[in-house]
């Protein structure tokens, strides 16, 4: 999909056309087009605020009850089945596309850092769903667990290999673990109830997540979002490029945000991940051009 701007009226310029035209922070063109369309959704304009109020009240009740109960209950299977049903029934195809795509991007980010880290033999992420239905296989839970296991393994490996960064820079960066992020969602087909934008959907989904995992698991999922700053710094240390770190908004893991802002933080987490994915794609393309230029036959005049 390509974004089609309205005719440029210099006396009444479009905000949406401007944010799509602004490529100061590079993103995948199709993903960005769906983001801009999602932001213009009528559900975001008219339903997001009442949905947010309802979701926070429901989540406060659930969290309070689960903390007071003498036992914890969870049902991962039911949570993921409800998530798939909800997305296919109420969420726009564009938002579904971006949500499914996010899991593959997360795997690419982890795998790049492993391949260019202190121990390339660490377990790689294998979560690359293509359809909403693929999320039913515990995708949300696996995504969080992959992140935490990577952080713990990564820092343990750094202690065991103190000179790893020097070896990586001598060898050069490896992009072998980066896979194309392919999503098989037909944007032209939608049910008549599929009207919810991404942030409204995330607000409602956090109710389901908080209900069907334990209190500690829900807290772990919420706190994971603030590792965005850490991942950005991991990237910058490996690549030597710190010029784009200011674009990361979820910061300071030692000053946790409230769970009530989780949907907004998830939106920002998705943007940061899209930015890193595009960074990798552009770096790979630049590397191929340099190699092709180096091996191209020279022409004598």
**Class computed from helices, strands and strand pairing:** mainly alpha
The CA-CA distance between the termini, in Å, is: 44 Å
Extract low-pLDDT stretches.
289-301
Number of helices: 12
Helix content: 55-70%
Which geometry do the CA atoms define?
globular
Q: What Rg do the Cα atoms give?
A: 21 Å
Largest sheet entry: none
Order of helices and strands: HHHHHHHHHHHH
Percent of residues in beta strands?
Answer: under 5%
What do the pLDDT scores average to? 91
How many beta-strand elements?
0
Please tell me about this protein's structure.
With 301 residues, the protein is an all-alpha fold. Helix content is 61%, strand content 0%. It has 12 helices and no strands. Helix 4 runs parallel beside helix 9 and helix 9 packs across helix 12. The protein is globular and about 55 Å long. The C terminus is likely disordered.
Entry keywords:
301 residues; mainly alpha; 12 helices; globular; disordered C terminus
Summarize the structure.
The chain is mainly alpha-helical.
SSE layout:
Blueprint: H1 15-21, H2 29-39, H3 42-46, H4 48-68, H5 76-90, H6 93-115, H7 139-160, H8 164-171, H9 198-212, H10 215-224, H11 228-239, H12 262-295
Helix pairs in contact: 2-6, 4-9, 5-9, 6-7, 6-12, 9-12
């Amino acid at each position: 999909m390509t974004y089609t701007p309205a005719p440029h009226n210099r006396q009444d310029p479009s905000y949406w056309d401007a944010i799509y035209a602004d490529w100061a922070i590079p993103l995948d063109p199709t993903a960005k087009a769906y983001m801009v369309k999602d932001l213009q959704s009528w559900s975001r304009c008219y339903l997001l605020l009442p949905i947010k109020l309802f979701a926070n009240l429901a989540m406060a009740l659930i969290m309070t009850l689960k903390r007071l109960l003498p036992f914890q209950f969870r049902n991962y299977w039911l949570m993921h089945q409800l998530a798939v049903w909800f997305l296919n029934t109420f969420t726009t195809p564009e938002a579904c596309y971006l949500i499914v795509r996010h899991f593959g991007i997360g795997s690419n980010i982890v795998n790049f850092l492993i391949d260019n880290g202190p121990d390339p033999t660490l377990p790689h992420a294998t979560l690359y769903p293509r359809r909403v239905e693929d999320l039913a296989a515990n995708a949300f839970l696996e995504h969080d667990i992959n992140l935490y296991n990577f952080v713990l393994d990564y820092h343990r490996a750094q202690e065991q290999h103190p000179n790893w960064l020097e070896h990586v820079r001598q060898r050069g960066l490896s992009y072998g673990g980066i896979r194309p992020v392919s999503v098989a969602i037909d944007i032209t087909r939608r049910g008549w109830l599929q009207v919810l934008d991404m942030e409204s959907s995330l607000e409602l989904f956090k109710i389901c997540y908080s209900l069907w995992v334990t209190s500690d698991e829900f807290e772990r999922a919420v706190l994971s979002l603030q590792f965005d700053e850490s991942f950005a710094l991991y990237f910058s240390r490996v690549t030597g490029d710190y010029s784009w770190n200011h674009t990361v908004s979820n910061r300071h893991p030692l000053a946790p945000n409230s769970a009530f802002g989780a949907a907004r933080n998830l939106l920002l987490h998705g943007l940061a991940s899209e930015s890193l994915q595009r960074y990798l794609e552009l770096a790979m393309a630049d590397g191929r051009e340099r190699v092709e230029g180096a091996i191209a036959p020279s022409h004598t005049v």
